[in-house]
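A favour, since you know our structure tokens better than I do. Would you make up a two-line entry for one protein for me to read? Write everything out right here, beneath this request.
=====
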Amino acid sequence: MSYPGEGFWSEEKDGLHLIGSHCTKCGQNYFPPREICPECFAKGVEAKIEPIQLSSRGKLYSYSIVHVAPKRFNPPYGIGYVDFPEKVRVLGQLTTCDPKQLKVDMEVQAELGRIAVDEQGNEVQSYKFRPID
């Protein structure tokens, strides 16, 4: 089993949290983590880019259902942008559910799950988003 993006999340008691970065110069938050702030271009001594832990839950901003996918993925599946309270928008797969259940602004929870299968038939796991009832 492989984990692309490993190090971009941490598993806590209240669920999976994505790890982003925070620029101390301009206050912007980012995911995935950055070494240079793309907003103010601060780096090194100009500002400290600090790791931040995003909330485990966010709101679905927009989504689409993928019916034709690369060969290692198993369509149909949802993919969507999730807005987190830390003012970060993250793109990720949505867990298996009836596409009719998906709604803009619905609450979702980050979790670790299968996103694809590699050339040897092993599961590839990464963060996904699960709709909350």
In short: The first strand starts at residue 9 and ends at 12.
